[in-house]
Amino acid sequence: VGNGQEGDETRPKPLPEGETINVLISAGADVRHVVKSLARRPKGLKHVRFYLHEKQHEVLARHLLFLQIVNNKALTIRERMEVFLSLYGNTLVRERDCSYVSELAPELVELITENSAHPLAEKIDLSQLKFKDRDILQDVFKGWFKDVPFDVEALREQRCRGFYRARYDYRKNLMDYDYQTFIKEVAGIIHWFHYKQFGHTGVAFETRLASYASPNRTLASYTEAMDRSKGNTVQVRGYWGDIVNSPYHGFCTRTDPEVRHRLFKINSQQYRHTETDIAEYNLTAYISELETGQRFSLPPEKPEEFTYPYASPLDELRAADKVEEVEDPPKAVIEEEKPRQRRQKKVNWPPLTSAMEGVEIVLLAGDPLEVLKKPKYRGLFHRAFIGAMGCMPVFQEFDLKGGAEQKGDFGAKREESVFASIMAEGGEVIFETLKYQAHFEGMTRLGFRHRVAQAAHLAGWRLQDERRSLPKLEKDMQERQARAHERNATDFLRFVVMSGAACEAEK
């Protein structure tokens, strides 16, 4: 919920203090946008309402899980960070992580059925979900129990064999090509050893000396497939997550500008830290700020950081947060009703972090063009984020699919567009780019930027920092030059919603 970047000629309006700020996040894929926005929320913003829209119900279910983790004050900040990263990016997790999800699943089922005593239930608004969507979410949570079979290793291997086909035995060489060509040049902090390990095992984040052998059932999902015998469409449960890009880009490739020079330091042509170090710092900072309300940062610089063997500022943080092995505390007391009655669980849940005060989270599911066309959403949102996977409805609305060119004046489709109508005047719309997508060529990624900019032009949205956000695209451009332009471009495209008078003035 920031107010744009410094140096922009066109800036969004300041967020009104004392009013409810409405933020739309469509196809965000995870809750990092919510967590960071709440951790860095200005003091004057007392009420914030997030609308989380996802096409897949499994992603919404994971949103609720991660919101519970970062707000679970029964765990230390370091423990929350470790559980979050393990469930966020690993197909195989620790036994304790698997047990954590299994024990929490019944409470999440109660939350969906509006029968939960968890403090998070007061912050979640399910009124915009159809009963069909609630039933699907309930089934998703029931699939997280430990006794539900989910052979993620076999399912992931099947995915990899289908992707690499005859080159499966040489997949390490293909991973090396993807890393050197598409990943290292835009995110060199990602270490080749860790990326290779993720490509082979699906384990991206490892902390301490733990065994990662339990399946991460939160990554189980359904997709449409064709029944070979009957020829009809069926839903197939399996692992349909990422096997190429890696989950490092969410928390590992960006950090606070004031500490970036220390965490992204290069010595002897090699980064001093790895992507896992960056993720641990970022997530620790967010959770700490959620709980304390104070800005989290590294300890002051020391001379040892500039002399061999180049001490890490993270070592001091880890030493101060050292966890001692203790016996497991007794489990929360569960009071059971008499037999033959519905069992009621009464658990003393810890209160949420202070950053959740005045926060409401509304869950949305389904086709965004159908969901957002309701009159109550018109001019509602002050900020909006649209993920790369959520741009297809935007292209569909502006007839920009299949490489079609749609020319028109600035704001020509402002009145008839669903996405344009839901934004408040002076609001900010942020689009995710394909900068970190390893399976797209440079020309494709640049073309995606221009296609988003074309849709925004028709909607009456003005691009910020156009020089860096939208590099020039030429038909005869070489691939190496296109990748260089994409590497130096911004991670996101930021637009300011212009008024109707401004659109008319530019026609």
Please outline the helices and strands.
Layout lengths: L19 E7 L5 H8 L7 E8 L2 H14 L6 H13 L2 E2 L1 H18 L11 E2 L5 H12 L9 H13 L6 H13 L8 H10 L12 E2 L4 E7 L6 E7 L17 H7 L2 E2 L2 E2 L3 H18 L20 H8 L38 E7 L2 H4 L9 E6 L5 H6 L20 H4 L1 E10 L9 H18 L1 E3 L2 H4 L9 H10 L3 E6 L2 H7 L1
Parallel strand pairs: 1-2, 1-11, 2-10, 4-10, 11-12
Antiparallel strand pairs: 3-5, 6-7, 8-9, 12-14, 13-14
What are its keywords?
507 residues; alpha/beta; 37% helix
Describe this structure as you would to a colleague.
With 507 residues, this protein is of the alpha/beta class. 37% of the residues lie in helices and 14% in strands. It has 18 helices and 14 strands. The strands form four sheets. Strands 4-10-2-1-11-12-14-13 form an eight-stranded mixed beta sheet. A two-stranded antiparallel sheet has the order 3-5. Helix 1 crosses helix 10, helix 2 crosses helix 5 and helix 7 packs across helix 8. The longest helix has 18 residues. The radius of gyration is 23 Å and the shape is globular. The N terminus is likely disordered.
